[in-house]
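Same chain as my last thread, 337 residues:
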Amino acid sequence: MSAAIPRPLTVHRALADEARRLRASSQSPRLDVEVLLAHVLGITRERLYAQSERVLGAAEHALLHELVTRRARHEPVAYLTGRKAFHDIEVGVNQHTLIPRPETETLVEVALEKLDELADETRSRPADDSRSRPADDSRQQPADETRSRLADASQGQPAAGRRREWPRVLDIGTGSGAVALAIANARPDVRTVGIDVQYQALEQARLNAEQLGLAERCRFLVSDIFDDIPPGSLFDLIVSNPPYVADDELAATPPDVHSYEPHTALLGGELGLDFYHRIVPAAPAFLAPRGFLAVEIAEQRAAEVTAIFREAGRFEPPEVRNDLGGRPRVVVARERA
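reply #2:
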């Protein structure tokens, strides 16, 4: 009796077989395999079903099997493919960048809302209305290499008493640049500056900006929060998704997180509040008149973060915004007049 001829490995069969391997280690085994197989074949997930009877070559099967094996060890799908969809864009990610979450899209939506609010005020303001800083304000124009790069993002300062026609946004802890790039993608009039302490993350952010055609309006600089931002560099909006996992909470996060994502982008100190204590009190020195500060938060720390805003004494009462799951996700406040 002749040996049975092995069945060709089709897309349909590969999806079923590899998804079974992930059932014990992933909450979304089928979705994970769909994303990985689409990556291997260089097509979209939607195209997989149009090509369900396509036969995988030996190299394609081997690569898929390797990626699923790594996923079974909890390596995030985004690191396996090097890509992650976020808001209306897709960005590249690497082991030096936090993987953008759907919840963080709330920060982008709040930012866009506040930029619209500023734009409406600018359109309705009389031409001679002046809301500039007092003449003796100690903020000076930057005068070093960083000044030059910041100026590139803004094309100079506005005339006294006028907000720029091109709003400026600062993204603290930019990582892959996802937040800054999503804002710039949605608002063609906006210039953004993303800062981070990780040079490798900024390299990825710059590459993402180039691939999205946003490099002319999005700049990325090494800075530990405001440490390397010269006084006098003013922004209409400052946003941040800072590290906010408390030190003793890390072990309770999924292995996809604590075993693979950079701890420098996750850990926010003993109470998860260290970065808010650094960002919020210092932000007014870098806000244009009546600018906004918006930060992402852990859902259980809304009260603590809003208290930090109030204690700073420079902001109007902060607002807490929920994400699509109904959980507190963003605190935003406007600088007092």
